[in-house]
Amino acid sequence: MSAPASVPEADEEKPPAPRGEGRHLLSIADLGAEGIEEVLRVTDAFVEVSRRPIPKVPALRGRTVVTLFAEESTRPRFSFETAAKRLSADVLSFAVASSSVKKGESLRDTVETVAAMGVDAFIIRHPSAGAPAQVARWVEASVINAGDGWHEHPTQALLDCYTIRQVLAERAGVAVGEVGVQAFAGLRVAIVGDVTHSRVARSGVLALAALGAEVTLVAPGSLMPPSVEGWPVAGVSHDLDAVLPDVDVCYLLRLQTERGAGSFLPSVREYTAGYGLTARRAALLPESALVMHPGPMNRGVEIADEVADLPRSVVLRQVANGVAVRMAVLFLLLGQPTGGDSGGGVDQSNGPADG
Amino acid sequence: MAERERRLTPPRGGVFVPRVQVLAAEDVQRAITRIAHEIVERNRGLEDVVVIGLQTGGVPLAFRLAQVLEEMEATAVPVGMLDVAFYRDDIGIRPVLAEAITAIPCDLAGQLVVLVDDVLFTGRTVRAALNALADYGRARAVQLAVMVDRGHRELPVRPDYVGKNMPTRLDEQVDVSLDGVVLGDVVPR
């Protein structure tokens, strides 16, 4: 199953998922509403696993997962690695900062070298949009996009959807498994902040809209993409105060100063004055509204200190669910029959059977 | 996992065609009652006894068994359910349905666990269940109750309580529910 050490020079690239769909998670668009629903359902099982005295199952024993993070980011990496380890997969962690990439090796050479060691999945974070999709063309292994440039961050969107569903279940007083995705229909979500530079916003919009939520983007003009044509959003606004009284979820994006968001603004203080969720603004939200943030929070910039610690803020819960959601994604991609095994029919004469 | 569901799942999918009714609903009920008596006799009561049904076929049997035990001894019997999808040794051979719920009612350390399943066949599900149980604590002992033992073991597993011993062919299919036990075949769609 491992990729050949050297891939022949091909003039035309292979399509991203040559052997059937669902082998990679590159974009929320790959999943569709049904795929998202499946991830959420399997996540329930892994939330239960996480509560056990020994929160580890042998489901992916013998599989090898590589985390390749070309952007420094400790917590998402921990989240993915914890998920893989709780599934008993072996985890290799490729630290770009201390690797041959520093010596000038290309991304392609790097992943092909690692793939030649026999790897089942690459978890890739990269500053360039499309890098994980490109890697998916080069290797046989599954590729999970852990954030690529301004493009997408699918597992973040999935864990956000799971967190919303979990809260809805608790409010309804039922087990989370009993809340179907139809609970998202008509849910009003405001995604607030640096939409232009945010991969979380792109994946979030796709996921929430696929489940039927009404998403409104709120940002200063300079941090709104020049066109949102084709985005499945219900509306766009530049006035946060006007939007807040009519939302069920207020999703704050981090002001990404490392991606140059600061240069789109007169000053960070002015951003906070117009678009930060201050205590005054939080009071405009309906009683039941949730406050979410993908982390890490810039306290005092997009979210005020006192708001971040309110009970309606579910930021820590998002982090906790992240591990279970990533377990579900890994399990669904790697815990299934591989392409070579297709013993169709009902011939059970020598196959293992149940009992 | 009920044998029926797994066998009807792609890529091996097929249709279950019933042939013979082996046990009627009353027979299943009588077998459960007898097994309940055997459990009480063997363990001299129900102290520390926890009943765990294996998803999905063992769950209704486990709840019924626990109910009978409670009526018999007038004491509460914790009952739970266990899905062993993540512990199976055939992940990668067959699709794994990770949709069944696991709910263990209490810490299992020091308890006496009675595992309940519908059909005992190769023993691989039980092997997976024993591994899963170990992650919930060190049970004092684990006993196995099944409604049907159809033979063809591939692992050294032996049931403690059996509803009915039923020799079968490998290609036959046993369908167990509280409504009875049916022997049949799976035919390709």
Describe this structure in words.
The complex is a heterodimer of chains A (355) and B (189). With 355 residues, chain A is α/β, with parallel strands linked by helices. Chain A has two domains: 28-153 and 320-334, Rossmann fold, CATH 3.40.50; 154-318, Rossmann fold. Chain A has helices spanning 32-50, 74-86, 107-116, 131-138, 154-172, 199-210, 240-243, 268-275, 279-282, 305-308, 315-334, and strands at 64-69, 90-95, 121-126, 142-148, 188-192, 214-218, 235-237, 249-252, 290-292. In chain A, α6 (199-210) links the parallel β5 (188-192) and β6. In chain A, α1 (32-50) packs across α5 (154-172), α2 crosses α11 (315-334) and α5 (154-172) crosses α6 (199-210). Mean pLDDT of chain A is 86; it is low at 1-20 and 338-355. Chain B is α/β, with parallel strands linked by helices. Chain B has a single domain, classed as Rossmann fold (3-Layer(aba) Sandwich). Chain B is 27% helix and 30% strand. In chain B, the strands form two sheets. Chain B has a five-stranded parallel beta sheet. In chain B, strands 1-8-7 form a three-stranded antiparallel beta sheet. In chain B, α2 (25-43) crosses α3 (58-73). The model of chain B has no long low-confidence stretch (mean pLDDT 88). At the A-B interface, α1 of A face α1, β4 and α4 of B.
